[in-house]
Amino acid sequence: MKKPLITLCTLPLLSGLALAATPSPDAKALAVLKQDGVLCYSAIITVNDKTDDALSKQAEAIMLKTFNGLYLKATQYDAADTCDRELIYTFEVDAVGAPTIYTDDLKLHTYVATDGETSLPSATIWSDGYWGGNAAVWKPATYTKKMQDHLVTMMGQFATDYRSLK
Questions:
Q1: How confident is the model over 41-86, as pLDDT tens digits?
Q2: pTM to 2 decimal places
Q3: Would you say 91 and 60 are in contact if contact means Cβ atoms under 8 Å apart?
Q4: Which residue of 21, 39, 108, 155 pairs with 74 in a disulfide if CB–CB is 3.0 to 4.6 A?
Q5: Quick one: 93 exposed, middle or buried, by C-beta within 10 A (0-12, 13-18, 19+)?
Q6: DSSP 8-state secondary structure symbol assigned to residue 97
């Protein structure tokens, strides 16, 4: 029996991201991405209190892959003239001595937010994240895999939430 060919229309769904099964309670907040405005993205990876530019670029590549799969135009924060919304990923790990402790967050900020009565210069309108630790001291390969796995999962939830919008 021959295996079926994957059609071109399914390729964006098979972008290597773990797709979440159901939209999160915050999914409706992503409707702002269908309005006019520039979406930016950035990643800040901190290892032992020092920024790791190489890991930050890896994380931004994962984010960009998701945006491309959703046909969602986004600009890397440092390359943008302006940003109306920004998806920011942060990952911090302390791997000097035991225990290893980490935290990571993915947050969508909108700038100059208003509900008609109150205006805010910035508001977090969607977020996801993890935190944890391990009794062992993690090597770079271990915390890099943890960062990648978590970001892929969170971007999968972001994609599910965005696709759920009518």
A1: 999 999 999 999 999 999 999 999 999 999 999 999 999 988 999 9
A2: 0.81
A3: no
A4: 39
A5: buried
A6: S
